[in-house]
Amino acid sequence: MNIKHASGVTGLPAKTIRYYEDIGLVKPDRADNGYRDFSDVHLHKLSFLARARDLGFSISDCRDLLALWEDQDRASSDVRAIAKQHLTAIEAKIAGLQDMRATLADLVQTCAGNDRPDCPIIDRLRKG
Amino acid sequence: MNIKHASGVTGLPAKTIRYYEDIGLVKPDRADNGYRDFSDVHLHKLSFLARARDLGFSISDCRDLLALWEDQDRASSDVRAIAKQHLTAIEAKIAGLQDMRATLADLVQTCAGNDRPDCPIIDRLRKG
DNA sequence: CTTGACCCTCCCGTGACGGGAACCTTTATG
DNA sequence: CATAAAGGTTCCCGTCACGGGAGGGTCAAG
To answer: CA-CA to B122 of 20 to 30 Å: which in A16, A43, A120, B24?
Structure first.
């Protein structure tokens, strides 16, 4: 199965699939003409990666998760640890963004937004 | 005032200040020995940038905000438009992260996290 | 006079790809 | 059978906002 087909099945752009091969996440076979040849196992791995990336796992996380996925004797606690850590990071990011949102919403609300130069947003950025 | 001092006053690393000069956000004078020399106006600009970046504005946004800051005849609506757009982007980002959090929290909760290979997190990533 | 703390420029690396050039192979069509 | 379109390949540069470090000049203190 060539890369275009693999792209269609997994939803990943061909460029991304090549990149994943570059960094060693998947190792497709090669046909005689040099074209990549993806088996069902490769496709499963790529789909796995697509879903993990969609959940915001980093490539490094994905590498670990993929290793655990391939390890029949894995302990679920290992997987859970990665997920928990990622969850904590996401929650921190959300909290930071919510702070930003509060400040910005406040500024936007107190700004008249008219033709006059008087602007509390600029004032705030000016004075801290 | 040399770059170390400017860094201390604004809280920006020296590297960042040099970068801001590279991309044309600030244009400090130069002393005879080639050292950058920052005036009060430069420091105000840098502090402005530090606060705007802290609120998550992109460098491109900052460039626009800085131009408006310097324009005594600006309309506050122009500033408000940038801030509102940024606010919308932040809210979208928060929503996306909250979705992720919900899914991940669910997965983490249903995972036993013991020594056995049975793991709902992997299952979910495997099957979609 | 030397030491150490500054300063400078320049180049490489980050994360996770995207765009595009230059070139080869396969497939469909006149 | 020739050709054109649509696939494939590698390779290199660009993204964003800097950080790290090399290699070298400058300055103040002991």
So the answer is: A16
Nearest to B115 by CA among A80, A32, A102: A80
Residue B38 to residue A81: CA distance in whole angstroms? 48
In which element (H, E) is residue A66 found? helix A59-70
Distance from CA of A110 to the nearest CA of B (A): 10
Query: Residue B27: helix, strand or coil by DSSP?
Result: coil
Best residue in B9, B61, B79 for a mutation probing chain A (most A CBs within 10 Å): B79
DSSP H stretches of helix in B11-128: 14-22, 40-54, 59-70, 76-110, 120-127
- Looking at the predicted structure, is the pLDDT value of residue A69 above 80? yes
Give the residue with greater pLDDT, B94 vs A128: B94
A46 touches chain B (CB under 8 A): no
Does B22 contact A at CB distance below 8 Å? no
Q: Return residues 51-90 of B near A (CB < 8 Å).
A: 51-52, 55-56, 65, 68-69, 71-77, 79-81, 83-84, 86-87, 90
- How confident is the model over A17-41, as pLDDT tens digits? 999 999 999 999 999 999 999 999 9
**What's the rounded mean pLDDT across residues A92-107?**
92
Task: Look at residues A71, A70, A62, A51 and name the one whose alpha carbon lies nearest to residue B124.
Answer: A51
